[in-house]
Every structure is written in C-alpha cells, then in structure tokens.
Write a structure and sequence with these properties.
The protein has about 240 residues and is mainly β. It is built from two helices and eleven strands, in the order αβαββββββββββ.
C-alpha cells in the first residue's frame, strides 16, 4: 500500500511537472520581445520638434437685426476651406502625467463668406491671409505601453494676421475683418516611439473667442454682427 501511494504521488508530481513544462514552452513560443525605443525619453526636461498640419477652417457667422429688414441676401454663411500650417514644437516635462507645450506656427488660410440671393445668384467674399499662431497647451499623457501612448491637449492660442490678400469687388462690397484672434483649443493624439524619433498624429479643435467682424455700413456687412473662427486641424508631429 505504501508503494502504491508513493507511485500515485509520483505520477501526480510528474503530471504537474509535465503540465508546467508544456505551459512554459507554449508561453515562450508565443511571447515576442519588444524593443522599447527611446526608453529614457521622459527623463529629458525639454524636447523640440516640428510639425506639418492640415487645417479645415471657416467663420461662424452671426446675423445682425438688419439681416431681416435691410439685407437682400436670404443666407450668409462661411464654407469649410482646407488650408496649410507648419511650425515647431517646444515640449516641457512637468511630471509623469503632464507636459506644457508651445507650438508656434505659420498658417496659410483662405476663409470665405458667401451670400445667397433670391433667384439663384450668389456672391463670395474671400480673405486669403497668413497668420502667426502661438498656442500654449497642457498635455495629459496616458501610461506608456511599450512604444505607444495616448494623450489629451487643452489650452489657448493667440494669433496675429501678418499679410492679407483679398479677392473682392470694389466699393460697396468690401467685408472688413480683424487681424488678431484669441481661441480655446483642445484635442487628442497618439504617440509612437521609433528608434531615433517620436511620431505623433493629433486631431485638434479651435474655437475663436473674438469678433473679427469690423462693422461697416456697406452691402457686404449690413447683415452681419459677428464673425468668429472655427478650425479643425490634423497635425503630424515629429520630435
């Protein structure tokens, strides 16, 4: 009886050992070692980079009381227009979860205001301009998983117009707009670490706070009381 009990215990031990060996072998076959690029990236206080961006922008139009009584147009609106932006990144490490981010840029915009009249006629006021943008943003980072992590952005931006080219009729059709803007910005991004750099596509939203419309008594501005900017931008960041 003693021998049988010993043999039984030996069988159980061999069965458990065999199971562990099979499990470890399978685990070893399925496990793939991932090289962690730029492992000490966050140890550096300041990082620099650059980006290319594709904004889609428009004015948000608010009608004046005169739109009903004095304006001959039955609709005034601003269509979405694709633009281009390029700039630099200065990223300051605050702690494991937060960074402070400055992304100065130059933007080439072409915003339009379109007037639709009864009878199917329309008129378009085009403002082509170059803007210098100075966004200051707080960045919240998720925990890094191997070579990737997500992040959120929020902050504000100051912009100034440096050059204006207008496609407009002369005289009574001029639409005048301001040359400085303040905006709130927020967005989401994804960071992918490579051997020598970090690539981060990012989607950011911007809502202008200032009224860019300069009041006039001409036909182009009689139905408008406020013009504010609205922009959605896809960024491709390299750091």
């Amino acid at each position: 009886m003693t021998n049988r009990s010993a043999i039984s215990r030996l069988k159980r031990s061999l069965t458990i050992l065999l199971f562990l060996l099979v499990h470890l072998t399978t685990y070893g076959q399925n496990y793939k070692y991932v090289v962690k690029h730029l492992e000490r990236y966050d140890d550096k206080l300041i990082h620099y980079g650059f980006f290319f961006a594709a904004p889609v922008t428009r004015f948000t139009v608010k009608y004046s009381p005169s739109f009903i009584t004095a304006d001959s147009a039955y609709r005034i609106y601003s269509p979405n227009k694709a633009s281009f932006r390029v700039g630099f990144v200065v990223n300051a490490f605050l702690n494991d979860r937060f960074d402070l981010r400055l992304t100065p840029s130059v933007s080439l915009f072409s915003r339009e205001v379109q007037y639709d009249y009864p009878g199917g006629t329309s008129k378009t006021e085009v403002r082509e301009s170059t803007w210098v943008d100075l966004p200051l943003l707080f960045k919240y980072k998720s925990e890094r998983r191997n070579n990737s992590r997500m992040y959120l952005l929020a902050g504000g931006s100051f912009s100034i117009e440096t050059n204006v080219r207008r496609k407009e009729n002369q005289g009574a059709s001029r639409l005048s707009t301001g040359t400085t803007d303040l905006a709130i910005e927020y967005g989401i991004g994804f960071e992918q670490f490579f051997e020598f750099f970090k690539f981060a596509p990012e989607l950011r939203f911007s809502h202008g706070l200032l009224n860019l419309y300069n009041p006039t008594s001409n036909a182009a501005g009689i139905g408008i009381s406020r013009l504010s900017t609205h922009t959605v931008t896809l960024y491709l960041n390299f750091e």
